[in-house]
Amino acid sequence: MPSVAFKNAHSSFFAGQPFRLLLPDLGGLYDHIDAYIERDRAILLSGAADPGTFFVKSMKSNSRDAAYDQNTFYEAWRLVIQRYGVFNPYTGRGAIKGLLPHGPHNVRDVLATHILKQTGSYEQASYAIQDTPEMVAKHYGRFLPQDKAAMAAQILNRVWEAA
């Protein structure tokens, strides 16, 4: 994927190079992708011109373009989260209790913060969001003092586990 497709395209993480990440074939991912490309994509496009992107909008009578732009992708993401992600106690539908509607950028925030809290490594968190350790430290390094102390205690406690 060209680095310009990312929010932080000019970050030293990319160094002007495209981004490549091979996804493992978990849960038959490759078969699902093949089925989407060979069968489902044409149904979604419904005769419209293919924009050449992986994700395409389902074409309807009021649609003019099958490509997502920044706004339409955000709207689609938020709708999916509201419909299928947020648990509704009255209907019993939804996947995650306590989840609030959010846009795709929030995934970046959650991912960076989670990895930072689990590892304490700005570098590992930066790899996860394709950015630099300096940016992670600046924007996501807002640990509470007890979080830092708990992380240090876990590391120190490993000494006793080995004994």
Helix residue percentage: 40-55%
Portion in strands: under 5%
Q: Give the helices and strands as they follow along the chain.
A: HHHHHH
The span between the termini is 48 Å
- Chain-averaged pLDDT: 86
Category from helices, strands and their pairing: mainly alpha
Number of domains: 3
Give the number of DSSP strands.
0
Total count of helical runs of at least 4 residues: 6
The radius of gyration is 20 Å
Backbone shape: globular
Q: Summarize the biggest pleated sheet.
A: none
Which stretches are poorly predicted, pLDDT < 50 over at least 5 residues?
A: none
Please tell me about this protein's structure.
The chain is built from six helices and no strands. The protein has helices at 29-45, 70-85, 105-119, 122-128, 133-140, 145-162. It folds into three domains: 1-63, no CATH class; 69-101, no CATH class; 104-163. Helix 3 (105-119) packs antiparallel against helix 4 and helix 4 crosses helix 5. The longest helix has 18 residues, at 145-162. The protein has 163 residues and is mostly helical. It is globular, with a radius of gyration of 20 Å.
